[in-house]
């Protein structure tokens, strides 16, 4: 008679999971990310166009440091699953590394490296003294219980413990993570250090050292950038129509702010699909519906619409605020908006970008490293407040966020005129220029 406590052979599901992880690692799929290739090509092309020192360019095309870890986690049913986690640090010439942690089943080393690269230039464009990093776990967080999410987060924190810290690398929330995730990371790090370290992460709940205005900062920042673009284009926002792909944190707060600015939100979408009402949606009612149902599917006050159809609606303002790579060459040809504000990271492929470059007189692009930089700006505020143990009011936060984004937008416009190029190239060129100045001033050690 066998001992009931003796573990049996792995189930088919366990073997499949292990095999997929090994195959991905052995086949070099970790680096084979179109997003990474597109981002690196854009950086390289911009460096060449602005005569950046080739040595600097080569350093900017690869991260300074990358870590892949296994994250074994005990599930609620007693089984142990092994997830793959990442932390990539791209460049810290201007200050400590800064970047989010995402939980998504498509996370890879290439994707995280591209996001870390973009974060370096995003911080530089905003003028804040931080460098770029990114992290994540290849996992679908939706079916996990709160206990499972806590265990996987705490184990991941221990695995990357030597990389993060308030003076070296400060994580924040990203896709699939939130303020609770950051609280678990902060607590785990603090327990390992033996004292409370609130500034090890940003995006925490306010009552454990978070900042007022952080949760809505990215979406609010998108709206502020749209307001700056509208003023630049002499394009009053009152009555202008808006479509938003992605109705998570960024999309919802952008919708709320733009509605208060006088815009008419006519379409929104999430992973389950979207809804369109040419007369305008009541954003508060949509939020209430999603708060109860969790998804937009079957929302009654409008026509159902697919994510792809939403992107091609005839609207004044389009905000892709979900996954990257959703606007390819074909969709870019069919865009009918006047302003494209990139709430997501890398929503336009390289093919799509070439089309938008040709259509720059028709479509004004606010690139991701400017449009969605509100989150990292207020994360910077939170980091500073935590280090000083002195906190600001919401009014002060929003006022400073508006000022920084308004100045950054003006500087990007000035660079665009100086280089006589498109907005994406000009904005990236500004970020590269500032990082290059810091690298050359600091020199190369040893």
Ordered list of secondary-structure elements with their pairings:
Blueprint lengths: L11 H15 L7 H16 L4 H7 L4 E10 L5 E12 L5 E8 L4 H18 L4 E8 L7 H14 L9 E5 L5 H15 L23 H17 L7 E5 L3 H12 L3 E7 L2 E4 L6 H11 L9 E3 L1 H5 L5 E4 L8 H6 L4 E3 L8 H9 L5 E3 L1 H4 L2 H15 L5 H26 L3 H20 L4
Parallel strand pairs: 3-4, 3-5, 6-7, 6-10, 10-11, 11-12
Antiparallel strand pairs: 1-2, 2-4, 7-8, 8-9
Describe this protein's structure.
The strands form 2 sheets. Strands 9-8-7-6-10-11-12 form a 7-stranded mixed sheet. It has a 5-stranded mixed sheet with strand order 1-2-4-3-5, sandwiched between helices. It starts with 11 loop residues before the first helix and ends with a helix. The chain is globular, with a radius of gyration of 22 Å. The protein has helices at residues 12-26, 34-49, 54-60, 109-126, 146-159, 179-193, 217-233, 249-260, 283-293, 307-311, 329-334, 350-358, 368-371, 374-388, 394-419, 423-442; strands spanning 65-74, 80-91, 97-104, 131-138, 169-173, 241-245, 264-270, 273-276, 303-305, 317-320, 339-341, 364-366. It folds into 2 domains: 12-34 and 62-204, Leucine Dehydrogenase, chain A, domain 1 (Rossmann fold, 3-Layer(aba) Sandwich); 217-371, 3-Layer(aba) Sandwich (Rossmann fold). Helix content is 47%, strand content 16%. The relative contact order is 0.12. Residues 1-15 have low confidence and may be disordered.
